[in-house]
Amino acid sequence: MGCPIYSFQFEYAQVQPRCSGLYYISAPMKSTFLYIAQTNGKGRGVFTGSEIEPGTTIEEAPVIVMSAEDRVFLDKTLLHDYIFEWQPAGADLCCMALGWVPVYNHSSQPNCEYFMDYDNQTISIVTLRKVEADEELTFNYNGDADHAPVIWFEEK
User: Fold this and answer.
1) 136 contacts 49 by C-beta, under 8 angstroms
2) Residue 4 placed within a domain
3) Burial of 69 (C-beta count, 10 Å sphere; 0-12/13-18/19+)
4) What range does the domain containing 71 cover?
5) Structural domain contains residue 53
């Protein structure tokens, strides 16, 4: 008996059946030339295998939105370092971005910036300047590329 030949198309992903009856989700990245690698002193990071022009959207990731009550619990876990404040119309929420967004490292001199789309519940990563091949992609965790660093860890 062979595998069924069909798939379901969703806005951000394709769901395809496996022979075992389990399904996997294949979410296409905006940029197929991104990769994750170890960095010097910062753990893993996101890198580009190709040159990228300024203003290029390199990733658009869905988010999981959570309440202020959920954040109280998240702040007591390792996930605290990976959540974003999510404040549509001043709401006191937080979110966990999916995709590779949690792997991008902080820089006070970033080459990318992130943008929140509250209506579509996504975070997009966009380059600020030309990025060279094999350069690490970073953004300022404060949300504004020019914002002075006020972070909860020592920048490396």
Assistant:
1) no
2) no
3) exposed
4) 31-139
5) yes
Q: Any idea what the CATH number is for the domain that residue 132 is in?
A: 2.170.270.10
Contact between 46 and 29 under an 8 Å Cβ cutoff? The reply is: no
Could you read off the pLDDT of 65-122 as tens digits, one per residue? 999 999 999 999 988 888 999 999 989 999 999 999 999 999 989 999 999 999 999 9
Q: How far apart are the first and last CA of the chain?
A: 55
Which residue is associated with the tokens 């979110």? 95
CA pair distance 47, 25, nearest whole angstrom? 23
For the chain, what percentages of helix, strand and coil (3-state, to nearest 5) are there?
10, 40, 50
Question: How many Cα atoms are found within 13 Å in the side-chain-facing hemisphere of 18?
Answer: 7
Residue type, position 116, single letter: M
Total structural domains within the chain: 1
Residue 13 has pLDDT above 50, yes or no: no
* CA Rg value for the chain: 17
Does residue 3 fall inside a structural domain? Answer: no
89 backbone dihedrals φ, ψ, rounded to 5°: 55, 35
Question: Does residue 131 fall inside a structural domain?
Answer: yes
